[in-house]
Amino acid sequence: MEKIDWNSSSSVGAQLFDEQHKQIIDMTNLLISAPQATVRSETISELLAKLTKYASIHFRAEEKLLQENGYPDYALQKAEHKAYRIKIVALCQAAFIHKDSVPTELLMFLRNWWVNHILETDMKYRSFLTESGVK
Ligand SMILES: [Fe+2]
Question: For residue 12, how far is its CA from the centre of ligand 1 (angstroms)?
């Protein structure tokens, strides 16, 4: 599976969020590059737990800034983040219970969700943050 490529055109216009997105992408790429590793191996389970925890921190930071500044599409952001949390818990549980390797479904979900969310949903707040003078 192809790794995620973060480049300058992936920037959402806020340094903190760009840094957080890069960390998340790095973790996802590590999982993509080790698809044969068992889910129960310490490295993979720790990485999945770390990614889940880090994504929550990132979502909270994004939601706080967008809500405080009256971002018009805040509800969509919150809804997508919530849907991610629900889906990733289900996929991780399934992976730990039934699989011996990191399931392709989990990797595909992580890859597609982050790419689409950053480039489409998050990118929508880029001009809002710039125009509002929020960085
Ligand atoms: Fe977001």
Answer: 10
43 alpha carbon – ligand 1 mean position (Å): 26
Amino acid code (one letter) for 60: R
* pLDDT tens-digit readout, 69-115: 999 999 999 999 999 999 999 999 888 887 777 888 999 999 999 99
* Residue 116 CB neighbours (<10 A): 12
The pTM score is 0.92
pLDDT (tens digit per residue) in 1-58: 899 999 999 999 999 999 999 999 999 999 999 867 888 888 888 999 999 999 999 9
Exposure string over 49-82, b if 16+ CB within 10 A, otherwise e: eebeeebeebbeebbebbeeeebeebeebeebbe
Residues with CB under 5 Å of ion ligand 1 are 62, 122
- Cα(104) to ligand 1 centroid in Å equals 23
